[in-house]
Write a structure and sequence with these properties.
This protein is α+β, with helices and mostly antiparallel strands. The chain has 5 helices and 6 strands, in the order H-E-H-H-H-E-E-E-E-E-H. The protein has a 6-stranded antiparallel β-barrel with strand order 1-2-3-6-5-4, surrounded by 4 helices. Helix 3 (36-64) packs antiparallel against helix 4 and helix 3 (36-64) packs across helix 5.
Length: 190
């Protein structure tokens, strides 16, 4: 394999996505942890992580007791609906969804203000449509001025927990699957 190809390869798969995003300065990040909306973000992340962990157990239960497994699926959907309602309420505080490029390793955004390279920021993300709230720390890797006066900002996530990384990976895989399904459907409709 040529050296150029090896250097251009990326560690994580990237997707284009629409998410709600709030960028908090480093000094604000310390005071936000006691904030009610941040606690809701953390709760939403934990709910999604627990749902992810429960999938294997639910499959095992379904092998022995379909009725119980179906009941547990209904309860899970109820909790998911509550989580989505909470997420929609949180999105109102953050603002409208915006285009980003997302991976397990970081996020690239367009922003109206420059951010210093190597500075650390707290990002409040709501991943759609499941309403997954995440509070992540990111280091600015690059900041370039665009023709329209906006700034292209590339970040890398700092100190992600395994649970956060799994939730991001799951979201990215679900987004890829949805895009592939929509592409197949559009080809079949031609």
């Amino acid at each position: 394999m040529p050296t150029e190809d090896t250097e251009d390869r990326r560690e994580y798969y990237r997707i284009e996505d629409m998410i709600a995003l709030e960028i908090l300065p480093p000094e604000h990040a310390e005071t936000v942890s006691g904030n009610g909306s941040t606690q809701l973000f953390n709760l939403l992340g934990e709910l999604h992580q627990l749902e992810f962990e429960a999938q294997l157990l639910l499959r095992q239960i379904a092998e022995g007791n379909r009725t119980l497994a179906n009941y547990l699926k209904v309860q899970s959907k109820r909790i998911d609906l509550i989580g989505q309602a909470l997420a929609q309420d949180l999105v109102k505080d953050i603002g409208p969804a915006r285009e980003v490029v997302l991976s397990e390793g970081g996020i690239s955004i367009t922003h109206d203000q420059p951010l210093d390279e190597d500075s650390i920021w707290t990002l409040k993300l709501v991943l759609m449509p499941q309403g997954l709230g995440m509070l992540l720390t990111a280091r600015v890797a690059s900041c370039q001025t665009l023709d329209d006066g906006q700034f292209a900002i590339g970040t890398s996530f700092e100190a992600l927990t395994d649970a956060q990384r799994q939730l991001l990976a799951r979201h990215i895989l679900q987004k890829q699957a949805t895009e592939r399904r929509l592409a197949r459907e559009s080809l079949q409709g031609i």
